[in-house]
């Protein structure tokens, strides 16, 4: 009995140590961002300053329009997810509910998108966006992601798990395809839809390379691109407190949502991996 | 087959439903793949008037690239990066999952998972401080274990690439842990009870039962990891910009440089082809290897 208590405490201690080590970057950046701006970092003096201060945050907002970047990110993520949900539901439903000549080939073509990421094809895709006249717009950041292989795949798998009899019975009762999809299939796929939404929002909120290529003004820049430029500004140099504040401004909105809905987030990612 | 006959009444509908997704995939995945292959056979450089319009160049872009030690270095960097980051992250993710699947440890899950929610740009910015010489926390941490080696990771030609590995590994291990957690939850408990009754030790159980039963999860995790390793270069932008002298440059970062700094579209197209071929080679061979193990077992 006593031996097992010792083991429990030892296990708990090791756990706390690993967890703290893993969270060190986040903990440090929160602490560092609250240091007064006039106290430089030095060996053995990288944590708290003499007082806590929000000056770094205020300064960061003065240097770069993070409010505008935030709105741009929200607009971009909304433009991507709302269309993805429609296109993926339709395609997923077609592949799950119907058999039609060429369905396997079409499905395979769509799945290639999972193996060849859109951003790897940045040379021609950049050209396409320019030809469409969309360079430096929110649309330019969103449209390449409007068809989602992952969303289509995930929803097809989910829909295949729904007994066909439901759909067939509804059809005999005179339901059209979109009534079957809306009132039977989609309500039963809510966990998958949430899972897909979370991973899509997380991915695009945090994405850098494509928005970096396709935007050039603060009107359209999302948070990640704004931060990347911010870190490269000559006048900022090694002002770690200021950099931490900017970093947290970018990460915080999604992070707060995560802390509130942590169960949902983790289960969402789990669901998306199981299919 | 019976189903097929019923569906014949509405032959057009499923195509219409698939069309929107298909359209965007064709426009932003299939067409650009083909156009990169085509473009790789042309010399097109936006900063040289003679080559503003594409001129046929045969395999010139490929021979130029393969003859360039700088490109071979970047190719080598990319392969080393992928071959280290993928197993390292996978094994750590599995270790975390085994540890945190016990309900009394599940409270630590958030701590391990939280880097998933941070943008790579943010993670890299924070790590830049950790890796900074003189007072960076990472060196202090290593110093605690007796490390006295070079301190400037980011600017050291031999260490810059590994600092990128470190950041990606920290950022992603918690994410892939989630899939192993899900996999472990779905393991058939009776198999393990039977094995224990037969007197199998923990190592035997792990290698003979846990790992084989998690094979599908491992296939999924390694596939997503490989693709992620090729496509995530945000930390390169923030931390090293590929330096010192391309020692930490990765293929996609180099592709971006060739396209937007050197304005060499023909060569950028050839690099795209390299990238796509590598992606397909890695994902397909990973799949084949895993499936072969299935038939062995």
Descriptive notes:
The complex is a heterodimer of chains A (275) and B (297). Chain A is mainly alpha-helical and 275 residues long. In chain A, α8 (164-172) packs antiparallel against α9 (177-188). Chain A has a domain at 66-224 and 253-274: MetI-like (MetI-like fold), CATH 1.10.3720.10. The radius of gyration of chain A is 24 Å and the shape is globular. The two termini of chain A are 42 Å apart. Chain A has helices at residues 2-33, 55-63, 66-97, 103-115, 122-131, 138-142, 149-160, 164-172, 177-188, 190-206, 209-214, 223-232, 240-260, 262-274. In chain A, 73% of the residues lie in helices and 0% in strands. By secondary structure, chain B is mainly α. Chain B has a single domain (70-296), classed as Orthogonal Bundle (MetI-like fold). In chain B, 71% of the residues lie in helices and 1% in strands. Chain B is built from 14 helices and two strands; from the N terminus they run ααββαααααααααααα. Chain B has a two-stranded antiparallel ribbon with strand order 1-2. Chain B is globular. In chain B, 43% of the residues are buried. Chains A and B meet through α1, α3, α4, α5 and α10 of A and α1, α2, α5, α6 and α8 of B.
Q: What's this entry about, in short?
A:
The complex is a heterodimer of chains A (275) and B (297). Chain A is mainly α and 275 residues long.
